[in-house]
Amino acid sequence: MAKTENMGVNTICTHVGEVADEQFKGAISPLYMSSSYAYENVDIKRYPRYFNTPNQEALGKKIAALEHTEAGMIFGSGMAAVSHCLLAFLQKGDHVVLQKTLYGGTYNFVVEEFGKFGIEYTFTNGFAEEDFRNALQDNSKVIYVETPSNPLMLITDLEMITRLAKEHDLVSMIDNTFASPINQNPADFGIDIVIHSATKYMGGHSDICAGAVAASDEHIEQIWNLSKNIGGSLSDYTVWLLERSLKTLALRVKAQNRNAKKMAKWLHKHPLVKKVYYPGLKDHPDYTLAKKQMKGYTGMLSFELIPTVNAETFMQSLQLIKQSMSLAGVESTILSPAKTSHTLLSAEERTHQGISDGLLRFSVGIEEKKDLIADFEHAFEVAAKKEIA
Ligand SMILES: *Cc1c(COP(=O)(O)O)cnc(C)c1O
């Protein structure tokens, strides 16, 4: 096969890593469900928990090609990927610098578990270089970011993170879930370890729970050394299903990017919308940075209703767009961060973070724009009427 660096992204999605069906010459990778492989006269001892079954290996190669790294690994969930990466590079007495506003599960993992391992941590006060510098300690070993952030789509400067990591000899890690490998390749900016919840854009159909990591051979080996002991591998059936999903990753994400940009512009002009948070809009505070390090602005956006429009009524009046906790499926979904991901914060803290009751996070799918607009128009009408009545 040709070198993956020279391949177009859709070709990578469709072909890289595929397992040849030598026996029947079928068009797709055969699914190998075996949990037991011969060990005599073989170099590799294959076993699902060693992350090296034929389907696991195939998918690892595709993810590495998509993220421009040497190697890739698939886990049982996004959190399995996050937790294995952090624990592989941190030990007792070490310190990690974490960006403010991380995915809730990552935040909980750090706050609830790190004490047991004697690992110290500091969350930054903001996204600027100074905020990261202020959080550094002599025993810092890892720097961890997530960009774009949830739900306000704030952007962290990846070149700045790489610079700090090099200066202080840190391993840099990013949760690249919101961007997907189509919109952002952090390894191109020098980030060491790229993590995905494959439950989101990679799976893309709201029917797979999985995680992925892309990094150098050396870093993957260090993660693997821990992973084989903890054992968070993904079943081969789901691995195979994820390979199928990835064939359309670029097509889906590019369609979602286009839709999100159109919807962001439409919402921006709407009289009942106070503010739109989308890094592809020129008035987003991080537009220039997003433009520099992203290839597309994702299918994720948030918008704030004006105070006289009730968010609950608005959401319940939607007929096409579903209320949903998760994101990034081909179907459009919406949620209230104040009522879900950020409900444990005090009202005051939420206000401080810019998460008002009227803020809604919109995961834009692949439906036609006119149908999404019609659904919103109807909901605006009902919610506005109810306020007047
Ligand atoms: C969903 C999500 C995760 C966790 O992934 P799971 O597959 O649910 O374990 C991590 N990071 C981000 C940004 C997510 O959206």
UniProtKB/TrEMBL annotation:
For this UniProt record, give its keywords in alphabetical order, as a comma-separated list: Lyase, Pyridoxal phosphate
Key word Signal present in the record? no
GO cellular component, as recorded: cytoplasm
Give the signal peptide, or none: none
One annotated GO molecular function: pyridoxal phosphate binding
Q: Name one GO biological process term.
A: transsulfuration
Provide the positions where the record notes the PTM N6-(pyridoxal phosphate)lysine.
K200
* Keyword Nucleotidyltransferase among UniProt keywords: no
Co-factor(s): pyridoxal 5'-phosphate
The highest taxon in the source lineage is Bacteria
By sequence similarity, the record places it as follows: Belongs to the trans-sulfuration enzymes family.
Q: What's the name of the protein?
A: Cystathionine beta-lyase
What is the species of this protein? Answer: Marinirhabdus gelatinilytica
